[in-house]
Design brief:
Number of strands: 4
Shape: rod-shaped
Helix content: over 70%
Order of helices and strands: EEEEHHHHHHHH
Distance between the termini: 124 Å
Structural class: mainly alpha
Largest sheet: 2 strands, antiparallel
Radius of gyration: 48 Å
Number of helices: 8
């Protein structure tokens, strides 16, 4: 502690808690415990800031994959909340500086906020590489779905169960490919698909697109089946008509041929010719009436 007495500085170290000194200017009260608590709060601000920085340096994901940009922000938020709560808990017993603590709490919050984003910076290069890989894989998945759609439409109509089988086969193939080609497989890919280029869906969106495409293709196939069945009905009906008409025409021709040389003993040749013509005409008329146009 330093004060001036008769124009000269006086330095005094005290072992007691509080000093009273009668000077020309009056009494001065010195609370050494308050000084100690203030120093404790200052030190806690520094140590908490360093703890956050060390946490950033030492952080590793449970699955050893680098956290995405979104995950880093969430992790930092949770850590800052934890550290601020710890700071307030540790300073709560320091009653002599209770009016001083909010100021230092604000300073600590500002110091920690200044360090937001540091965790992502540490992993940025690896994360960006994984995001590029994720974009490439999901682009391939999208193209694969388009190719499968075109392939199935070329085959329509097919058995209704065949659409579901083909789509499930596509799912299995792509899941296996992602599992073998991306760190932590499908779950890992899902963690790096939040900032993809336009036109490339996230893995969750792709899975939904596959399900919707399955429903769409199933409906289109059902329509194709119904259309094909009707075409078959119409074709069968036409064939029956053609065969029946051909049979009628053949029967009429056969009757006409049979009558061509028939003679009745009770008719002369002229009368027989007239009667024969009548029978042939009636046969043709009846046959034509049975034809299905």
């Amino acid at each position: 502690f330093v004060w001036h007495e008769q124009g000269k500085p006086v330095f005094i170290r005290f072992a007691t808690t509080t000093l009273w000194k009668n000077l020309n200017m009056g009494f001065i009260i010195i609370d050494f415990k308050r000084w100690g608590e203030e120093d404790e709060v200052k030190d806690l601000v520094k140590s908490t800031t360093k703890e956050f920085e060390q946490w950033i340096t030492d952080f590793t994901n449970d699955d050893d994959t680098p956290p995405s940009h979104e995950q880093c922000a969430e992790l930092e938020e949770a850590k800052i909340t934890e550290l601020m709560e710890s700071f307030m808990s540790k300073t709560k017993p320091l009653s002599r500086v209770k009016d001083y603590i909010p100021e230092k709490a604000d300073k600590l919050q500002a110091l920690l906020d200044m360090r937001r984003g540091y965790l992502y910076k540490r992993f940025a290069s690896v994360v960006e590489a994984l995001e590029d890989t994720a974009a490439g894989m999901l682009s391939f998945c999208t193209i694969s779905l388009q190719n499968k759609e075109a392939e199935l439409k070329e085959l329509f109509p097919i058995k209704e169960s065949k659409v579901a089988e083909e789509i499930q086969e596509l799912r299995d193939e792509l899941n296996k490919w992602i599992t073998n080609g991306f760190p932590d497989g499908v779950e890992g890919l899902d963690a790096y698909d939040d900032d993809l280029p336009d036109g490339i869906p996230s893995f969750a969106a792709f899975k939904e697109a596959v399900s919707l495409k399955e429903e769409e293709l199933t409906a289109l196939n059902s329509e194709a089946i119904a259309t094909k069945l009707q075409e078959t009905r119409d074709s069968s009906k036409r064939e029956v008509k053609e065969r029946v008409n051909a049979a009628i025409a053949a029967a009429v021709a056969a009757v006409e041929e049979d009558l061509s040389d028939d003679m009745l003993p009770y008719l002369d040749e002229s009368s027989m010719a007239e009667f024969r013509a009548e029978l042939i005409s009636a046969s043709k008329e009846y046959g034509c009436s049975r034809l299905d146009e």
